[in-house]
Amino acid sequence: MANFNTHLSVAALGGGLVALSGHALGVMDLDAAFTAWLLTTLGGLLPDIDSKSSKVVTWLFTALALITVLLLFEAVRTWPLWQQAMILSAAFVSVAYGAKQVFSRFTAHRGIFHSLLAGALFALLQVLGAYYILALEAVAAWWQGAAVFIGFTIHLLLDEIYSVDLTNIRIKRSFGTALKLWDYRRPLNSIFLLLIVAALAWHAPSPQGFWGQLQSVWQLVQS
Ligand SMILES: [Zn+2]
Known about the structure:
- It contains eight helices and two strands.
- It is mainly α.
- The longest helix is centred in the middle third of the chain and has 26 residues, at 81-106.
- Pfam families: YdjM (PF04307).
């Protein structure tokens, strides 16, 4: 399997291609192209959040813990200082370490998070966040989601490529465990994830403008 640095460099390269072509084809301004580059790179790291040794999962839960502390701070502002300190540090530790432990226990490496369905989940989360929280226009939000999805797919492809041993043309047992539509071995997990993805898609802004741009990009590439 490809390691962290390989994933990081290939995803960053893919992100560069996405940003350059998005800008050249006139669907992204400079800011949007830069964001697309970052998001593709991030997408290329995301599938390995199911790996116990992954740096990404540590970052993710540290970030979540910081957000929790910030949100909680508003609520406990008027409390005595020592109580604030106690509750905030307890919150930080339980998210950064506790929630991470629980998460790692329930996710098998190369399970559900190494699937296109999980890619769709993160892409839609980006679309919704960009649209509702950052108040971007629907088209721009969908391009951001697309960047995450492209990075995610690059990661899955890379894992598959690495499971073919090119030196003596032999296929390792891990072949077929990375690039998949969903987790075939755990249908219940997959159905659950599918329901979440459907719910997110239901709340997403209309992709019509994005499809239109995608089609014109496709026509440009073909001609
Ligand atoms: Zn992986």
